[in-house]
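Re: that chain you flagged

S.,

Sorry for the slow reply, it's been a week of failed gels. I finally had a moment to sit down with the sequence you sent. For the record, here it is as I used it:
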Amino acid sequence: MMQRASFIKLYKLISLIVILCNPAYCLGQVLTATDTGLIRRAKVIILSEWHLSDLFPLYKRKLIEKLYRDDGLTDLVLETGKSTAYLLNEYIATGDTGIMRSFPLFTQRDRDYWKAFRRYKLPSGKPIRIHGVDFERMSIVPALKRVLKKTGNTNNELYRYLAALPDTILNLYKNDSLIPERSAVIQKCMSIYNSNVKYYSSIYDNGYVVKEICTNTAIETEWDKRFDAMAHNLRLLYNKKAHKYLLIVGIYHVDCPNPIYKEMEQEYQLQENDIVNIALVVKDCEAEAMYRGKGYVKLSTSRNILNHPGLVDSLYKLYSLPCTYQLVDVKTRFPNYKPAFKCDYILPIDCKWNDSKCN
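Prediction finished late last night. Pasting the structure tokens below so you have them in one place:
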């Protein structure tokens, strides 16, 4: 009798574990229950996110783990400058924690994210490569200093200018009122580069040349030039045909009059299914408006709404869970629904979820 009671307890425990580790509940199971093969077959995966929540680094790490493990991810493309990408690749290659101080915006969670990212290795043994396609930030200063110092090119005007800048120069990232000051620093670096292109263009480290950083035409304050430059930088990347990219950008780049996936389709002559977009839909965050009673959902920083009743119900069922990172397969589950922007999958996230529940 005692053995039977023990067996029943064990059975119930195992059953509970199975329920709790259903893909709808387990963060580590992200995508596995809903991937219909679109992601696996795609050449470019876009994650259109809302930038502002500090929960997302944890989510992105888990998503990247899955794409690296199961779907052939080789390259990560970020909405940042080439100098930032260089420093992140340097950190992954060396583990030098001092590099993290080059990013004043990084929280401890960001640092933990990149620390975990260092573990990922492709079948070749190489790490996933990081690329930047957006405008340069203040990381241009530590990046160029590092390249020039590592390669022994310190006896030049560019290095002398960078070395003379105070450490507090990195604080120019803080708000929009400082755009003129940080733009002046970036433009000065590019001006010095242009004064001796032949010399500076020959300097490179870890696959990054000074030329790439100092000729980046993306501009923080001019949207049209910024979008054109991002498309150009993406085109340079896509020429490497053997690579598979995850592009992480703000949702506006997908939900705008000239979305980035249209630029990519035209530039690369891609078919519709060659690009997959995963749209992040956030609940209970600042600036997020949810209209449950009216039967539609408004996306963060977005012009458009999701107004399919079945889709809205699916999102709210997932929001009701303590924590889930399960994708809603829009294209397969709601084939007749045509949202106003490319939306193959939706990943619902509630900003009330935290690390104690999501790990």
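What I noticed first: The first strand starts at residue 44 and ends at 49.

Talk soon,
D.
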